[in-house]
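Researcher: Please predict.
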Amino acid sequence: MSSFSLNPRLEGDSYFITDLTLCTVRLLKDANYPWLMLVPRKSDLVEIIDLEDAEQMQLMREIALASQALREVTDCEKLNVGALGNQVSQLHVHVIARYREDAAWPGPVWGAAPAQAYSHDKVESLIEKLRDALTGDED
């Protein structure tokens, strides 16, 4: 991989879960919604089209893997996937587990409710389950 540094805002707003072939996978610090963020570990990326063709395909595989892991771990009713980047331009993709009773349903999650902190035990357990689902590890 080329030199890579994670945008400080993305880092501060999330917990590390694992690194995949292309992306680092992080959990957003908002217990309102189980919310993954995938960030390709390459420098100077803003849009998906800034990746090489093979890397674009790898990103799609990793989005699908993250989506499957999040659905498996959370038993969510819907998954939202998006790469907005309006506030932080570094390329990152959100994979968000949604439920009919969540604070934003059926609208988008952004700005719908103030972020809610995870308890230490809950976030550690969720990270472990997601890491296992993403890497194929089993107890």
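Model: The chain has a mean pLDDT of 95.
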